[in-house]
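SEVERITY: medium
COMPONENT: batch folding queue
REPORTER: lab tech (J.R.)

DESCRIPTION
The queue accepted two submissions in a row. Attaching both inputs and their returned structure tokens so the on-call engineer can compare them side by side.

ATTACHMENT 1
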Amino acid sequence: MKNLILIGMPGCGKSTVGVLCAKALGMPFLDTDLVLQSRSGRLLQSLVNELGTEGFLRLEEEVILGIACEGTVLATGGSVALEDRAIAHLRRTGVSVYLRLPYAEIEHRLRNIATRGIAMGPGESLRTLYDERIPHYERNADIVLDCAGQNLEETVSAVVAAFRAHAQGR
């Protein structure tokens, strides 16, 4: 069975939606940010602070390239779509679903941007990050789901339905 790979901006709900999709589909769940933290023994924000954005992205890519699973729901870090080898590795094993939200909704959801462990360069704003990443998510998505204004249950239902339809070739 293929993996279900959730991609999108920090704050779009990948981890929360992923856990609930895994329950609904009867699949295991894996959060790549938690794998990164576990393997490094440090929190994401500490890694970003110590390694800088480029160093963090290299470490994240290395960790992603070491993930080997099937039939699993994966919630990825918001920056994984920036790393061509990492996202290609994940996409070979599954279906990537981009949880698309408008900027205003991302901004509203992200209250802890300075401590969340987001790979942002010095002086980079959330808006700049959003504008930079959107084309990467769109290019690397097998399925794009518009999640604006949806509650959690609606988003999970949409992801599960889209994943099942894709698996059946519809």
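ATTACHMENT 2
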Amino acid sequence: MKNNKLRDFRYWLLYCYLKIIHNLLYYKKTYFLGEENVPKNGIPLVIVSNHQNSINDALSIVFGFKNRIVSIFSRGDVFEHKFIAGFLRFLYILPAYRLRVDGENNLTKNYVSFDEAHKRLLAGGTVAIFPEGTNQDKHWLGEFSLAYLRMAFEAAEEANFEKDIQILPIANHYSDYFLIREEMLLTCGTPISLQPYYELYKTKPRTAQREVNKLVYQQIADMMLNVVDVENYEAIDYLRTTYGKIYADNHGFEYKKLPQQLQADKAFVAHLDKIKIENNQIITDLYKDTLSLKQATLQHKVRDWNFDKPFSVKNLLLQACAFVLLFPIYLFALIPNILLYYIPKPMADKFKNKGGNMALFAGGIQIVVDSLLVLPITYLLVFIADCFILNWWMGLIHLLALPCLGIFAWHYRLSFIKWCSRWRFQQLTKNDNFKQIIALRKHIRKQLDLLLK
């Protein structure tokens, strides 16, 4: 009993520390909508989520649910290393083995994980799982494995169907998958009680699982940005990220707020799907032109916002003066915050270079490595150095200022990159070939204005 209390105490210390890093430093803003739908503590709860951003999805769930220790299923191959496995289990993370990744021989190991999940559920705990089996690298919802419902119903069966186990569908969404200082949104749906399905499960277990799964799947699909026209995904997503703000403004959405942005994006995609049904040819031509525009902007290393940003030599010169004046502060802010970027970078880049859904591991690796290793060591060394060179209270002030300095350095760098981009774009506008790209973009915008009234 004493060991369990000590373990929980150490867990909550680490939890509070990581939550500060996650919610306040890594993300600019986090949203948790539908909190009133979360069943009260003590009710066995299975959280079911879409899987958009690898490790970040798991972290958003862990730090989103207050006063609950959430046991999350994670890919089984990361448990192969003894030390890592021990640390993950300390965080209440359970291994899940998949046929296409881990092979048929490893599937029997899931019995051990499910048995542990049963115990936690029947003790009134919380288990989270991603039934797609892998993270999607695009905004769509994949097929669900029914394993999560098999686990939930088997737990109920162990309790002689006397426990009301509930399924809580949730959906996650991000303003950007890869950059730090972006926004994250977690939305809770309506919990689904398994009690009404117990009798059906006793005679037709598979049917009961399918019926519940339909309800869970539909809720998650409705809460997230789910692009069903996968064939034209690339064109749709480019239009969403470039024309989406105009659509939101024209239809009464506050695009700067991520929850409103999500609703606007969903309405925008639905509107495009409706046009495709009514006039397939016009939307096909639009998507073809869009892909041409995207390819051209990538080749010239410009972004869509460059086209709308008015060029002013005066403003650029004023910004250049500001960069020069703030440069000493930028250099000061880089120490030691630059290490938070560069130390995890080689490991994160390995996943980015693999592309697809593997690239989505990069952000999670950045959080984990920085939080558990780089940040505490480097910040502590800076504090010790300050104490020797200056004094302890100056060292403490510097220590408390380091996260803010790191945020300043990040935004300084992004602002400078955008400044260079604006200057380069202005030079391109003098090129006759580039003028054709500008004309193509105007043509697409004019079509969108007419189609999306």
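NOTES FROM REPORTER
The beta strands are 27-33, 45-49, 70-75, 94-96, 126-129, 166-174, 182-188, 192-193.
No errors were logged for either attachment.
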